[in-house]
Amino acid sequence: MTAVTTEPARRPARGRAESSERVSVLYDIPGPKARIRNNVLTVLVIVAALFAVYVMVTKLDEKNQLSAEMWTPFLRGDVWLNLILPGLLNTLSAAAVAAVIAVPFGFVFGIGRLSERAWIRLAAGAVVEFFRAIPLLIMIFAVMFGGSAVFGLTVTPFAAVVVGLVLYNGSVLAEIVRAGILSIPRGQREAALAVGLRPGQVMRMILLPQAVTVMMPAIVAQLVVLLKDTALGFIVSFEDLLNAGARVLPSNFNNIIPAVIVIAIIYIIINVLVGTVATWLEMRSRRSRKTAAQPIARPDSPTAVEGGLGNPAP
Amino acid sequence: MQALFDEFPVILDAFWLTIRLTLASGLVALVLGTILAGMRVSPLPVLRGIGTTYVNVLRNTPLTLVIVFCGLGLGLVLDVSFSTSLSTNYMWLSIIGLSAYTAAFVCEAIRAGINTVPVGQAEAARAIGLTFGQNLRLIVLPQAFRAVIAPLGSILIALTKNTTIAAAIGVGEASLTMKTLFEAHGDAVVQIFAGFALGFLILTLPTGLLFGWLAKRLAVVR
């Protein structure tokens, strides 16, 4: 189905000069009048944006947030080495440990939900649905307090964050794995059974190898969510990157706004990089001939819609 | 079990705050997200740029950071104030953070919905002389919304769970209340957790069912 794309499509080439201009089906190619109107509106938008920036800057300046001593700490090597990087390292290691455990968790429970045996299906389904419905923060609190109250363990913030992340993201990954396996055309499984493979062999030799290609982009995109969620550790005093930005730096330099902005930029850079990997994998997997199916929806793109996000025009 | 019954009014109050946070942030995010989606498909490159930047920044920032920024940055440093009552003020600051973050996801959902509207609809609208604004308002958005009811429902469920993060700036919704009750009743941690988990199931499961039903009922027949 052709559909309205939000990405402006290339205009049908009429002349060399015009062919690079991009148009959308939502509005006409501007004529002389519309061009003037668009230019006026553009100027108005820019003026409004500049005014908003001006108001923000004045307000920040009023509160002395733009003075040099607020920002110079970020030019010092020791601040990065001693205050910011240890936080970043903790964030990355929590994310890495959680990811390494959550991915097998997701495979076990995702495949479990497709088991031939009803009790395995039901048990896996109950676990996955429960942990997906419970807010992650509630889980982290429960692990911290439950660990000591019920099992008599001292649960470190790191452990609580990792366990919470594994249970929640592992359950989301289980759904991705299930969707990936279900997206393989039915004929693949039927043909495999017909040549005499056992159900376990069908899963291991036919379905999973194809499904992995299909679900890779979604899995990597979920890892961005996991990385973002490590910031919840801040609430249970885990010394992560956000803790560096919102507690450690402000307590040294009293510069909460600059610190949070710098930390946000670090998070954005990391997440955009991981997100780019997911997009690259998605393109690769779309072209792949190792699988009979198309990549499944990524958790960061609301593609539960039929037709899908930005479905490329055929 | 006794602790759970004794504290029942406290738990109910906490969930009532969770519900208010969800509804208020959801409403603001829906409006802001629709405006952002309109900006992202508009004829003006400046508006498209602003919309894209907003979505990419907010989607890649942890919500905890957004809420901490709203609470400490806007609230403490910049003195943004909605109420003389400290708890009401922090409630509104957390609503700003929650809706600013959620709006980015709402925008992307609506943009995906716009993608499902057949090209002929927009072309016919242009052919009868509708402007971009009229085209969007009268033809494209009504169909786009009906296509993304289910994803918007998922966003609302995620928002319900995300309101717990308001605990980062001391808003006494469900998660912070649970922590307080854990500290007060160290012997009843499991029961209290079960109570709160059940509370969230009660909030999220019907929302999912309702939006699934709405999505089917309101789907555009093509």
Query: Globular, elongated, flat, extended or rod-shaped: what is the shape of chain A?
Result: flat
* CATH architectural type of the domain at 19-170 in chain B: Orthogonal Bundle
Strand content of chain A: under 5%
List segments of chain A where confidence is low: pLDDT < 50 over at least 5 consecutive residues: 9-22, 302-314
Helix content of chain A: 55-70%
Distance between the termini of chain A: 8 Å
Strand order of the largest sheet of chain A: 1-2
The global form of chain B is: globular
Low-confidence stretches of chain B: none
In total, how many beta strands of chain A?
2
CATH architecture assignment name of the largest domain in chain A: Orthogonal Bundle
CATH topology of the domain at 19-170 in chain B: MetI-like fold
Q: Structural class of the helix and strand makeup of chain B?
A: mainly alpha
CATH 4th-level superfamily of the domain at 19-170 in chain B = MetI-like
Summarize the main sheet of chain B: none
Share of helix of chain B, binned: over 70%
Mean pLDDT of chain B: 92
Quick recap:
The complex is a heterodimer of chains A (314) and B (222). Chain A has 314 residues and is mostly helical.
Question: How would you characterize the overall build of this protein?
Answer:
The complex is a heterodimer of chains A (314) and B (222). The longest helix of chain A has 36 residues, at 77-112. Chain A has a two-stranded antiparallel sheet with strand order 1-2. Chain A has two domains: 31-63; 70-287, Orthogonal Bundle (MetI-like fold), CATH 1.10.3720.10. Mean pLDDT of chain A is 85; it is low at 9-22 and 302-314. In chain A, helix 4 (77-112) packs across helix 7 and helix 4 runs antiparallel to helix 10 (241-253). Chain A is 69% helix and 1% strand. Chain A has helices at 16-19, 32-62, 68-71, 77-112, 118-133, 136-151, 157-182, 186-194, 199-229, 241-253, 256-287, and strands at residues 9-10, 22-23. By secondary structure, chain A is an all-alpha fold. Chain A is flat, with a radius of gyration of 25 Å. With 222 residues, chain B is an all-alpha fold. Chain B has a domain at 19-170: MetI-like (MetI-like fold, Orthogonal Bundle), CATH 1.10.3720.10. Helix content of chain B is 81%, strand content 0%. The longest helix of chain B has 33 residues, at 8-40.
